[in-house]
Q: What sequence folds into this?
């Protein structure tokens, strides 16, 4: 099995690297500590190169997230899956973007972090579908209970979008 992991989290990376039989590839725009430095909107991989993709809290940093989603779809094997996580504002109907907001303090106010370029809403599902994915939303956090959510630093808005090729 092959797994492409963007901006690999320390806690997950060690576990993935230790898995026997897994071709584990880490990637990021920042070359430090990853296998491949890349732009997620133009990846250097062949079509269908990976069985699985982990893309957690990356797309909110990418100006052209639709191009990134299309690239995720392109490099994912037809029978594979991708897990996408992004910061969400469940009170919004539509994802909020304003590329004129560039000052760090203004981005914190608008998007909760100074290097984010958007605040996603549940319509991210339609964006992912537009890239060719079938999307299943996992609301796992709702079943954890408040104490476990707090202990793990999770929010009710922490949803997982499981993406597969729409044709599969």
A:
């Amino acid at each position: 099995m092959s797994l492409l992991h963007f901006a690999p989290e320390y806690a997950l990376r060690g576990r993935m690297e230790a898995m026997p039989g897994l071709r584990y590839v880490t990637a990021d725009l920042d070359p430090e500590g990853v296998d491949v430095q890349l732009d997620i909107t133009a990846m250097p991989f062949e079509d269908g190169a990976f069985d699985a993709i982990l893309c957690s809290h990356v797309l909110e940093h990418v100006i052209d997230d639709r191009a990134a989603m299309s690239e995720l779809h392109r490099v994912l094997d037809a029978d594979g899956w991708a897990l996408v996580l992004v910061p969400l504002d469940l009170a919004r109907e539509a994802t909020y973007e304003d590329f004129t907001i560039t000052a760090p303090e203004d981005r914190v106010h608008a998007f909760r972090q100074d290097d984010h370029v958007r605040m996603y809403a549940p319509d991210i599902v339609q964006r992912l579908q537009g890239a060719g994915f079938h999307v299943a939303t996992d609301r796992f956090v709702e079943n954890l209970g408040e104490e476990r959510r707090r202990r793990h630093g999770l929010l009710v808005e922490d949803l997982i979008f499981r993406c597969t090729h729409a044709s599969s």
Notes: The longest helix spans residues 65-75. The chain has a mean pLDDT of 94. The beta strands are 2-6, 23-28, 36-37, 50-56, 76-85, 96-97, 118-119, 133-138, 160-165. The CA atoms of residues 40 and 63 lie 11 Å apart.
